[in-house]
Structures are given as C-alpha cells and as structure tokens.
C-alpha cells in the first residue's frame, strides 16, 4: 500500500541559521556531526553487584524535543556553543511536495490496493468494518469518506452480467417452449442449464479461479450453447415418439443416434477455444478464465444430456398420438397458440424446402453466388477498424495536468484551483460526486510505482472526477474538456488517461495507449526529433492528448566549483557536496538520526537543514557556510563556486539502460488501429531524420493489440485445422469435413457485416466471439452432414439425401441457433455496468450465427450433394421426400 498522499510527514525539525553559523565559524556539517555524536540510543550492557544484576542505561538520547536544544555543538575559546545558538528546534514536518484537495478542501488521500488473488468486495468490506471500529477514537473534526470505491462498479457489473444471464435463460426457455410445444420438454432443458453452470463453477473453484466479470461473462455466454445438448437430445426423442415408438425406446434410439455427433460437436466447440490458451500477457489473464468457464459448462452439459436429460424424459414425456390422428381444437390458449405456431412453422418449412430444391437444381450457380457474396463481404473489413479492447464508462474522469516545467507546488495548486472552476463550468454540479486533485510528487518514491499518469515533478498533478449514477456519458465530458481547457490555459498540457481498471491494465501502467519511444544516446538530438515528430502526428485524425512525456526545459542552477580554491581552503568536492545536501535536502540524506518518543514508542526522523524561505535568492545560496565537519576551516559557498542559470531534464527515462524520449497519445472518435497506421506512415516518412544510432518504436496498446490479434488469428486457423482433422477421424472421409469447414467462411462474413452495421470495431472480444461462433457453426453442420450421410446410404442419391437432411434438421438447427442468438442478445446490447466490454463478443456471435445458419441449411446440403453426386452411378431408388418430420 503506498504512503498517504497530501499529508505532512512528522519529523523533528532543526532549522539552522546560516548567519549564526557563519558568525561562529560553523557549517551545517558541524552541527550534523554533533547531533549524531550526542544522540545515541543503544543498550550498554548489565552489571552484577551483590545479589542483583543491574541493567545500565545512559541518557544518550534526549527524552523530549526541548532537550535537543541543549546539545553541545562545539567549544570555542572555552565557551560551549549549543544547538539553540545556531538553530531552531521544533516539532515539525518535512517540506510538503504533494498537495491533495477533495472538493476544494485540503485532505489526505490513502490508496488501498489488492493483490491478484484477493477479492475486491472482501477487501472493501473489510476496510469499511475497520473504519467503523476505529471511528470512536478519532477527533471529532476528522472526516473519513471513500472517494473511489471499485466495489460499486464491481457489484453493478456483476449484477449486470447475472441479469444478462437471467434474461438469456428466460428468452431461451420461451423459444424452446415455442418450438417444442411442451412444457415438459422445456422443464427438462431448463433444469439442465443451472446444473451445468453449477458444475462449471465447481471446476473453476477447484482451479483457484474467482467469480469476476470474465468468468461470469463466460457463463452468460455459455447459456445459449448449454441449451444445445439438451435441446438436440429432447428434439430427437420427440422425433422418435412421433414415429409411434414408446418413450423408453425413443429415448434409447434418440440418444444412440446423436451421441457421436453430439460428442464431436462438443469437441469442436472446445477446440475452438484453444487459441485463448496461446495468448500472452494481460489478454491471457482476461480471456482464459472465460474460455475455461465455457468449456467446463459445455462438458457438464454434455454429461447431463447423456444422464439427467434421458432420465427426466422417461418420467415426464408421454407417447405421441399416432401420425395422422385428428387433433381437435383446444380450449387452452397456450395450446392454441402453439398449434398456430406449428402451422406457421410448417408453412415456413415448406417454403424452405422449395428454396433448397431450387438451390439443388442450380447447384453450381448457387454455390458460386453464395461464395461471391461471402468473399465480397470481407471488403468491409477496412471500414470496421480495430481496437484492443472496448473502453468502459466507469463513471469517472481522470485528467492529468502539467503546468510549465519547474513551477513550485504552491503555484501549481493555485492553477489547479482555477482549472477546477473550469471543470465545474463544464460538468454540472448535480452530476459530480467528488472532485479530487493530487498535485506534485508523492511523499515516497514507492508511490510512483503505483502511479500510471506520468507525474514527474511539482508541475504535475491529477484530477479524479467521480460522477453520480445516471450521468451523461463520460466520453462527452472528456471531449468537451479537451476543447475548453487548452483555450483557457494555453501554457498548460492536459491529457486523459483511462479511468476504467481494464484499460489501465491493458496499458501496462502507461498513461496512454500509444507510446512512441525514441531510444538512443544522443538525448538532445532525440528530443529535437521527438518535437518534429509530435508536430507531424498531431495532424493525424482521431489522435488526442499527444505530448512529450519528458522535458528538457526544467530551470537549473549549475554550481560551478573552483576545485583549486577549495583545495587551498582545505575542502574537497565531497565536503562541498555534503554541505549543500545537508542545507538543502536535510541531514537525513547524509547522516540519518532519530528521536524516540517515550510517550508512544515511535521513532521520528531528526532532520537538520536550512529553511527554504531563508534561501530565496542566489545571494543567500552564496552565503551558505561550507566546511567538512572535522577542521576549523569554514567558508562560504560563494568563495569556492559560481552559479550558472540554465535548463535541463527534469527526469531521465531509460529502456534497457538506453536513454529514451517518449511521445504519449490517445485516440478519440477513431479506432486505434487506423491511428497507429497513420503514425507508422509518418515515422516511415521521417526515417531520414532519425538521429544516428537512435531507433523509433511504436509500443503501448498498439503492440499488445497486434500480438493478441496475430495470436488469435493464427490460433483460429489452427483450431479450424484441428476441427477438420477431428471430423475426418469421425467421418472417415476427407470430403465431408471439407464441406463443413468451407461453410465457416459464411460465419466470418456474418461477423463482418454485424460489426459494420453496429459500428463496432474489431477487438479481442469480437475475435473471441468469432472463435465461439466457429465451434457452434461447426456443431450444427456436423448434425446436418451426419444425417445426410445416413440418408445417402439408404436413398443412394446425394440430392435426395441432402434435401431430406436439410428438412429433417431444420428445427434443431434453428432451435440451437436461435437459442444462442437469444442468449447473446442481452450481451450484445451492452446492458449494465461494464457491458461495453463484452458487447462486441455478443454482436460477433449473433452476426456469425445468422450467416452460419443460412450456410448450414442451404450451402452445406447443396455442397454435400455436389461432392457426392458420383457416389452411386446406378439409378437411385425413388423415395418420396417427407413433407414434415
């Protein structure tokens, strides 16, 4: 946990008087050495006397701060100089370099972080309990309040995901009831869904996974697929019941008929998720838990469809009336509605049969036209754009501000007050919960480890604006602030780092998604090139917040030491350096000393230095006494050194020990991939201007996105190959698997059309949806091809077999596809907090399945008939095509 921001660090302050030191021939080092010599707290041992053993204690350390004033510093002409003669000792604090305001009032900010295995909700609940426990002992004026509670977003996001899953399950159940027309069958399927989810949760817990947005999102994603196994099983049992068989025989025959295709379909879906496990970095940690949740749920669903579903079917399903038996009108409105739906579905089946017959009569023309449409669809890809991950509206605005370099923290705080007024003129007061500013360098370097906004000095600071529920989109406010603030404060730089935790993780701690690094040893030349490059890339459409992270204009005073003169006075460079460090930074940097408070047992630093208000001019610096703490020679800094005013770098950034200059930027109203492409073009055009020995690298989310995309694409191709080989083994044929795999291009075309129509960019979630769609589309095609192969053996005519397979599998294919589409609908709409991050996944699945279903019902049967047209050259046996199954 980082140290608190904005507070004052207590210490015993010894403010030396340079004039008093100089008058007595002393330097700050002399006082520091005396302080270290007379403030000692160590055990000195024991002594046995008589029957007792005594512990010896020495008053080596003062028991009160006031006693420090009486510490002897030096004896001059027989007179003892005490610390009080040359310094003011008081209970004080370190010079404040960090200021925090909450809604305009001075405050102290504490950030509590968790490790990766801890639960956010548990941590926040524990903190709240501790606050209530400690509150009775606090001063009445102390007000402690949470200003950034991630648990609120987590709870809302989890609630949204659970709601998505519930809506998906309800829609799916209604669809099943509509298609099957039996509440008994619907109950069987509905019972299997929560049991499969429970089994997946058990396996996830066994692997140490937690309930989070990704695992819950995977379970919500799986609901549409979970229906598949149970639906196919029940539908097949009903088909056998319609043939006049008894319930038990129908269950056994139906289960036996689909066990192999169902198992192959399960393997196809699981294999489709293999690319997830080849991701690296943060993408792996985000999406592997989701993939595991889906795979475990699918495995549990398959086991339940072979065990629980047949068992429940035996007790709930009833034999169907004989075919052709008249069915009178029912008084039950639900039954009448279902009978009407069946009549309408029968008409739809007949129209589908006519369309399929027409396609089978013109096989080559249909196949060529279908593939032409699919291939032309890929021409939309350049218009989609690409982002690594969708941004999430977390209800917060994070803004980094940099005033002119070298501005002291008090002046920066004044400027921040003006900027706060400007912010409140843009964002209505009724929409702001809290407005926090964090100005300057934190009290400890460890805090910089947890800062991802690029704070580098007293001129930097951050605004954190928390918005109330029901607020306007944060992106609208950010867009307005980007326009208004630079106009009102032209000498100030503004940038908007990501406020949501997912984007911060994807940035790997960087303050922006675009990170251009110019690496090389010639820092000045690299900085000049960076300024030229910055000027060019600011014209790139969609680029925002472009700035150079480092600065080479920090005000600097060079202390030019005359080593010869110093040596004549008995001083070395080290002596002068230590004197300056003690006076300016404090004795704790050279000789740390502590005072133990006997009242509370806490040790506080004793810091000796010259108060900053005394050194407000170069003349004051020149009159600082300089000595070595061991000889009587004491002179002034001006006697051995001169001062030069110049500028320099406020910090030094390195990559693998090599100096670098960075340009950071973000995007607005344009996708990251297109912006990165334009930046690369500019870098390539300026290749001749790169300083000799230097390199230019485009990193950040751009690099991570490209690695993730390449990993997913290659993984997807590998998954298709594995699926093909699996189907080859199952069918013992090279042709039928090729028919199935060739239909997957339609799913990709559907994904492209859906992303284009909804204005959704290509992202890792969208590619994840594409991967899932591949598995489901393959599973449906396997069912059609399996039935077509069976009918081919009986009919010995590929056209008739393809036609009968399409008609027979129309209902289960539509049911599984619609179940998946309805299950994805709430996710595609981006409902709830954080719904934006999984919306591309749902949209990709819906678009892919829409096209894939058309391909499964038309393209696959037609291509099957073409591939098997020469299998039986003898005259086929004429069989009537059933009008309904």
From TrEMBL:
Gene3D superfamilies: Multidrug efflux transporter AcrB pore domain (3.30.70.1430), Multidrug efflux transporter AcrB pore domain like (3.30.70.1320), Multidrug efflux transporter AcrB TolC docking domain, DN and DC subdomains (3.30.2090.10), Multidrug efflux transporter AcrB transmembrane domain (1.20.1640.10). Keywords: Membrane, Transmembrane, Transmembrane helix. GO terms for molecular function: xenobiotic transmembrane transporter activity. It comes from the Bacteria. GO terms for cellular component: plasma membrane. The keyword DNA repair does not apply. The chain crosses the membrane at residues 161-181, 187-207, 258-279, 285-304, 365-385, 711-731, 738-756, 762-788, 813-832, 844-867. It holds the Pfam family ACR_tran. SUPFAM superfamilies: Multidrug efflux transporter AcrB TolC docking domain, DN and DC subdomains, Multidrug efflux transporter AcrB transmembrane domain. PANTHER family: CATION EFFLUX PROTEIN, PTHR32063. This is Nodulation protein NolG.
């Amino acid at each position: 946990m980082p140290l608190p921001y904005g507070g004052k660090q207590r210490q015993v302050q010894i403010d030396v008087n340079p004039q008093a030191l100089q008058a007595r021939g002393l330097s700050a080092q002399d006082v520091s050495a005396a302080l270290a010599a007379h403030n000692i707290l160590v055990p000195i041992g024991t002594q046995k006397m008589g029957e007792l053993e005594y512990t010896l204690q020495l008053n080596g350390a003062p028991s009160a701060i006031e006693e420090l004033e009486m510490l002897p510093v030096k004896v001059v002409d027989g007179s003892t100089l005490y610390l009080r003669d040359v310094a003011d000792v008081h209970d004080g604090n370190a010079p404040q370099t960090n200021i925090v305001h909450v809604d305009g009032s001075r405050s102290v900010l504490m950030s509590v972080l968790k490790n990766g295995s801890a639960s956010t909700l548990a941590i926040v609940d524990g903190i709240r309990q501790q606050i209530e426990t400690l509150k009775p002992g606090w001063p009445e004026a102390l007000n402690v309040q949470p200003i950034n509670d991630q648990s609120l977003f987590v709870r809302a996001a989890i609630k949204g995901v659970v709601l998505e899953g519930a809506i998906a399950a309800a829609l799916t159940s209604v669809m099943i009831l509509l298609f099957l027309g039996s509440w008994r069958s619907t109950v069987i399927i509905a019972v299997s869904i929560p049991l499969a989810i429970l089994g997946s949760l058990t396996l996830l817990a066994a692997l140490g996974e937690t309930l989070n947005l990704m695992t819950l999102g995977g379970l919500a994603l799986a609901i549409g697929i979970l229906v598949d196994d149970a639906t196919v099983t029940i539908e097949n049992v009903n088909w056998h019941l319609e043939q006049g068989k008894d319930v038990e025989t129908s269950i056994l025959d139906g289960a036996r008929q689909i066990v192999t295709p169902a198992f192959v379909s399960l393997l196809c879906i699981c294999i489709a998720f293999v690319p997830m496990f080849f991701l690296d970095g943060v993408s792996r940690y985000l999406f592997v838990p989701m993939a595991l949740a889906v795979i475990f749920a699918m495995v549990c669903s398959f086991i339940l469809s072979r065990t629980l579903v047949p068992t429940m079917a035996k007790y709930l399903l009833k034999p169907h009336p004989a075919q052709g038996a008249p069915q009178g009108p029912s008084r039950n409105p639900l039954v009448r509605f279902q009978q009407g739906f069946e009549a309408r579905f029968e008409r739809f089946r007949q129209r589908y049969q006519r369309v399929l017959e027409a396609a089978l009569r013109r096989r080559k023309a249909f196949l060529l036209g279908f593939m032409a449409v699919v291939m032309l669809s890929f021409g939309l890809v350049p218009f989609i754009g690409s982002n690594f991950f969708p941004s999430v509206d977390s209800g917060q605005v994070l803004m980094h501000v940099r005033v002119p370099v070298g501005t002291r923290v008090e002046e920066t705080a004044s400027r921040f007050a003006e900027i706060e007024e400007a912010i409140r003129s843009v964002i209505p007061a009724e929409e702001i919960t809290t407005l926090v500013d964090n100005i300057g360098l934190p009290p400890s370097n460890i805090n910089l480890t947890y800062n991802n906004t690029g704070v580098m000095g007293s001129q930097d600071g951050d605004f954190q604006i928390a918005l109330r529920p029901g607020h306007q989109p944060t992106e609208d406010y950010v867009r307005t602030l980007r326009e208004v603030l630079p106009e009102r404060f032209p000498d100030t730089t503004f940038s908007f780092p990501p406020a949501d935790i997912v984007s911060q993780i994807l940035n790997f701690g960087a303050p922006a998604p675009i990170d251009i690094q110019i690496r090389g040893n010639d820092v000045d030349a690299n900085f000049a090139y960076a300024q030229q490059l910055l000027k060019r890339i600011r014209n790139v459409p969609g680029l925002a917040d472009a700035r150079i992270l480092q600065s080479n204009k920090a005000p600097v005073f060079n202390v030019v030491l005359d080593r010869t003169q110093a040596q004549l006075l008995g001083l070395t460079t080290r002596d002068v350096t230590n004197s300056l460090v003690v006076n300016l930074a404090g004795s704790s940097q050279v000789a740390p000393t502590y005072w133990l408070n006997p009242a509370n047992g806490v040790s506080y630093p004793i810091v000796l230095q010259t108060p900053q208000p005394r050194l407000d001019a170069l003349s004051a610096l020149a009159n600082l006494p300089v000595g070595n703490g061991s000889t009587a020679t004491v002179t002034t800094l001006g006697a051995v050194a001169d001062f030069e005013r110049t500028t320099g770098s406020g910090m030094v950034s390195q990559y693998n020990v090599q100096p670098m200059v960075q340009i950071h930027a973000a995007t607005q109203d344009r996708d990251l991939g297109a912006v990165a492409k334009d930046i690369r073009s500019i870098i390539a055009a300026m290749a001749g201007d790169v300083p000799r020995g230097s390199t230019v690298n485009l990193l950040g989310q751009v690099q991570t996105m490209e690695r993730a995309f390449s990993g997913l694409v290659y993984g997807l191709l590998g998954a298709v190959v594995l699926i093909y080989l699996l189907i080859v083994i199952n069918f013992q044929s090279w042709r039928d698997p090729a028919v199935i795999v060739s239909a997957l291009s339609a799913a990709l075309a559907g994904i492209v059309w859906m992303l284009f129509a909804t204005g959704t960019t290509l992202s890792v979630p969208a590619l994840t949806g594409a991967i899932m769609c591949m598995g489901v589309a393959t599973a449906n095609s396997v069912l059609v091809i399996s039935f077509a192969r069976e009918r081919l053996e009986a009919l010995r005519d590929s056209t008739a077999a393809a036609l009968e397979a399409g008609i027979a599998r129309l209902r289960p294919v539509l049911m599984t596809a619609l179940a998946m589409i309805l299950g994805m609908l709430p996710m595609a709409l981006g409902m709830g907090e954080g719904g934006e991050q999984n919306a591309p996944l749902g949209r990709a699945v819906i678009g892919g399945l829409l096209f894939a279903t058309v391909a499964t019902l038309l393209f696959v049967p037609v291509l099957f008939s073409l591939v098997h047209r020469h299998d039986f050259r003898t005259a086929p046996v004429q069989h009537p095509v059933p009008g309904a199954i």
